[in-house]
Specification:
Elements (H helix, E strand, L loop, with lengths): L1 E7 L3 H11 L8 E7 L2 H9 L5 E5 L10 E3 L5 E3 L5 E5 L9 E4 L5 H9 L4 E4 L5 H6 L5 E4 L3 H4 L4 E6 H9 L4 E9 L4 H20 L1 H10 L7 H11 L9 H16 L17 H7 L3
Parallel strand pairs: 1-2, 1-3, 7-8, 7-9
Antiparallel strand pairs: 3-11, 4-11, 5-11, 6-9, 6-10
Helix pairs in contact: 1-7, 1-8, 3-6
C-alpha cells in the first residue's frame, strides 16, 4: 500500500469534497491517504516548498508551482455571481492608498485585488483574523473569504464584490478561486488513479450532500451551523466542482493572462498543458 499526504483547507467546501474518502465511502486498497487541514495560504506556501503530495491551492499560486506540481481537474472552487468580498466599517470612505488585510500573498483574491487596487497598502493575515482587524480599525478594509462572506458582522458593509471586479476585468466568466495540485514526482499511473479517487469523492459527496453535511455538523468538523453550511456548499461545492469544464479552463487562462500583464505572475501557457496526461493510462492498458 502506498501512502500519500492530501492537504486541504479547514473551510467547509474543502472538507466536504474530501471527507467521502475520510469516511471510507471512496478509496482504493492500493493507497492510504493522510489528510492535513491548514489555511489556504499556509498550503500555498508549503506547496511552494514541495511538502505535500497532493494539496488544495489557490489558482493564484499555481504559476509558481507549475514545475513541481500538476494541476488536477477536480475539487475546484469557482464563483458564479459571487466570491470574496472587500468589506469596511459602515460609512467609512476609503482613500486611494487605503490599508487592506488580505488572506495571503499567493491567494487568488490577493491577485485580483492587486490588479484592481495597485495603490492599496497590503498586510497579510490569517483569513480568520481579517474581520476583527477591520472592526478594530487596524486596517481600513479587508477581503473576506470562505464562510466569512456569509457571516460577517453587521457593523461592516461591502465596498466591492470581487465578482464585480472580475466582471469589469474579463466579462461574465466563472471566477476561478481554488483547486488541487499533485506532485509531479509521483508515478504517473498513481497520479491518474489519485485524481480518479478525488473526482469520485467530490461526485459522491455532491450526490449525498445532505447526509455528508449532517455528519460534518455532528462531528464538529465545520465552523458554521447547518443553514449556513447548506448555503455555502451550494456556492462552492456543487456539480461545477467535480471536473474542470472548458469555460472554467478559459477563465483560469484569463486570470493568468491578467496576472502576467500586471507584472505579478510569470508567463503561463494554456493551463491544459500543466494537467496530468490522462492518455497515459489508456496507453498502458492498450486502449488507444
Amino acid at each position: 500500500m502506498k501512502e500519500y499526504t492530501i492537504a486541504h483547507s479547514p473551510d467547509a467546501d474543502d472538507i466536504f469534497m474530501y471527507y467521502a474518502i475520510k469516511f471510507g465511502w471512496i478509496g482504493d486498497k492500493k493507497y492510504k491517504f493522510q489528510n492535513i487541514a491548514e489555511d489556504i495560504e499556509t498550503l500555498n506556501q508549503k506547496t511552494l516548498k514541495n511538502i505535500y503530495d497532493v494539496s488544495a491551492i489557490s489558482f493564484g499560486a499555481y504559476p509558481f508551482l507549475k514545475d513541481e506540481y500538476a494541476l488536477l481537474k477536480t475539487a475546484i472552487s469557482f464563483g458564479y455571481g459571487y466570491g470574496p468580498k472587500l468589506v469596511k466599517l459602515k460609512g467609512k470612505k476609503l482613500k486611494r492608498n487605503f490599508k487592506v488585510a488580505l488572506s495571503g500573498k499567493y491567494t487568488t483574491n490577493a491577485l485580483i485585488f492587486k490588479i484592481y487596487y495597485p495603490n492599496a497598502r497590503i498586510v497579510y493575515k490569517n483569513f480568520l483574523d481579517i474581520e476583527k482587524a477591520v472592526l478594530d480599525g487596524e486596517v481600513d478594509a479587508g477581503v473576506l473569504i470562505h464562510e466569512s462572506i456569509l457571516t460577517f458582522d453587521e457593523r461592516l458593509e461591502v465596498e466591492k464584490e470581487l465578482w464585480d471586479i472580475w466582471v469589469e476585468l474579463v466579462g461574465n466568466r466563472p471566477l476561478p478561486l481554488g483547486g488541487m495540485a499533485i506532485r509531479r514526482s509521483i508515478p504517473l499511473l498513481d497520479a491518474i488513479n489519485i485524481e480518479d479517487i478525488l473526482t469520485k469523492a467530490v461526485e459522491v459527496a455532491n450526490k449525498h450532500k445532505n447526509l455528508l453535511a449532517k455528519m460534518l455538523i455532528e462531528r464538529n468538523l465545520v465552523r458554521v451551523d447547518d443553514k449556513t453550511l447548506d448555503k455555502y456548499l451550494s456556492l462552492y461545492a456543487n456539480d461545477k466542482s467535480i471536473s474542470l469544464d472548458e469555460e472554467q479552463i478559459e477563465s483560469i487562462n484569463k486570470l493568468y493572462e491578467l496576472g502576467y500583464k500586471a507584472g505579478i505572475l510569470p508567463c503561463m501557457k494554456d493551463v491544459r498543458e500543466y494537467m496530468i496526461p490522462r492518455e497515459y493510462k489508456k496507453i498502458r492498458e492498450g486502449n488507444f
